[in-house]
Amino acid sequence: MQRIIRKISSFFSKQASSSRAISYEDNLPPVILSRDEHNISRNDIDKPALDVLYGLKRAGYDAYLVGGCVRDLLLGLEPKDFDVVTNAEPEQIKAVFKRNCQLIGRRFRLAHVRFGRTVIEVATFRGQGNGQNRQDYFGRNGKKSGKAREVDDTGRLVRDNVYGTIEEDVWRRDFTVNALYYNIRDYSIVDYTGGLKDIKLGELRLIGDPETRYREDPVRMIRAIRFAAKLGFKIEKHTEKPIMELAGLFDDVSNARLFEEVLKLFHSGVAVQVFEKLRHFGLFGYLFPLTEQMLEGESEGFPRMLVIEALKSTDERIRSGKTVNPSFLFSAMLWESMQQRKKVHLADGLAPQDAFHAAANDVIDQQIKRTAIPKRFTAQMRDIWNLQHRLPKRHGSKAQKLQEHPRFRAAYDFLGIRVAAGETDLKELFDWWTEYQEKDLVDQVAFANKLGREEKKPRRRRNRNFYRKRSQSGSGDAGSSAG
Ligand code: ATP
Ligand code: MG
């Protein structure tokens, strides 16, 4: 969650009061707030971002902060990152920052300027693609090739490397509140689209015709939801209207990009609100089809509570500055589907561990069609799930071994959200692990041994029954809770 760093000043009064959306065709001059008319101080801007801005300025170029950082600073929030935009073209940016600068991206060519561990993204103003601009497109090898701006049959913008001026660049941005520019030359704020007014109204308004803009890039629909939740803004009615109808456009967005977007959505510190809004607009099912199926089956039951508890825990971690891991989120989203699939495999006669592996494969294979989950995270998801099965078996030296597992902490947290979501029979187990972790090593050994003595007899009896039943029926234990 963002920290509020300053009270908002009274800069809003300068804005016109008309509620009509301003467009490129209006050809209006921008509203410019001079330094003494707004609250953004250079002290609020990270040093590497200032270095990039001044570096470009010294080299004779125009340079601005743009996007979320200007929006957040005006709202008195701490920006997540600082994006710079300039009239210098990528090769010229490279010439200014030399070895500190790397040019990236084909669809949208950008410069990354590195200062220590910080990378500042520097984009060149994008133009309208009306033939008056440089149409060159640089391929990966640096040679010119292909078209600079390309829209496919469905209206999707597949490439945008037509360079232009600030007057053109503003109209290519998504929301008016994301199209505010902070000019390093005189520290003023430049607003062409009515973004200052919309900050005052607390509204998210897409620049241009909403349907066209969503068709160009369907991800703008989920960006609307993310910003609405994060800023507590209302989605303006024309911006909101097409969302439900156009949800199907996600089918054309690459699974790699959707994975990145899902992380931004659910690691925003407002994941619970994001989840509710995604479901309200019918978008959630496009990102997590299996989870949506579970939720539809039981609207207020355990599947929903598990997701909510996982998101609440993620939000709390972000708010207190802790790290968050994508595998935890995905484990929670897919847990119920995995359990259901496991039951089917058990009914088909697979042994419990085989049924678990087959079920995990099934749900992960389905999910990565929508959001490509990198292998390291799917491996962690399998661990978190598998450890649910192992956490009850903690007597004697097993507890220590489990605690040393690299995914122990995530698995323990996962057990916690299962309890919070209603699996109260696991509460005793969860409390035991909580107490175990609070002890020092010597006490831990005694604590686990004590349990070993108490548990051994009933366990053996249970095991004998288990094997007897198994040899009678020839099938496995269909009742094992997790794993
Ligand atoms: P955050 O706080 O998440 O960083 P942001 O608004 O800075 O929010 P970024 O993804 O960092 O979002 O993008 C920076 C800016 O680039 C945006 O503010 C917007 O002006 C522009 N932008 C990003 N994605 C799109 C898009 N899909 N379509 C149009 N403009 C976009
Ligand atoms: Mg940003």
What can be said about this structure in brief?
The protein is of the alpha+beta class and 483 residues long.
Task: Describe what you observe in this structure.
- Helices cover 50% and strands 10% of the residues.
- The chain folds into two domains: 2-128 and 164-208, Beta Polymerase, domain 2, CATH 3.30.460.10; 282-455, Orthogonal Bundle (cca-adding enzyme, domain 2), CATH 1.10.3090.
- It starts with 30 loop residues before the first strand and ends in a 10-residue tail after the last helix.
- It has 20 helices and twelve strands.
- The chain is α+β, with helices and mostly antiparallel strands.
- The strands form three sheets. It has an eight-stranded mixed β-sheet.
- Strand 9 and strand 10 form a beta hairpin.
- It has helices at 47-58, 68-74, 90-97, 166-169, 195-201, 210-216, 219-231, 237-246, 255-266, 271-280, 284-287, 289-297, 302-319, 326-347, 352-370, 375-390, 398-404, 408-420, 427-438, 441-473; strands at residues 31-33, 63-66, 83-86, 101-104, 110-115, 118-124, 149-151, 157-160, 180-183, 189-191, 203-204, 234-235.
- It binds adenosine-5'-triphosphate (ATP) and magnesium ion.
- Residues 67-68, 80-81, 83, 173-174, 178-179, 217, 219-220 line the site of adenosine-5'-triphosphate.
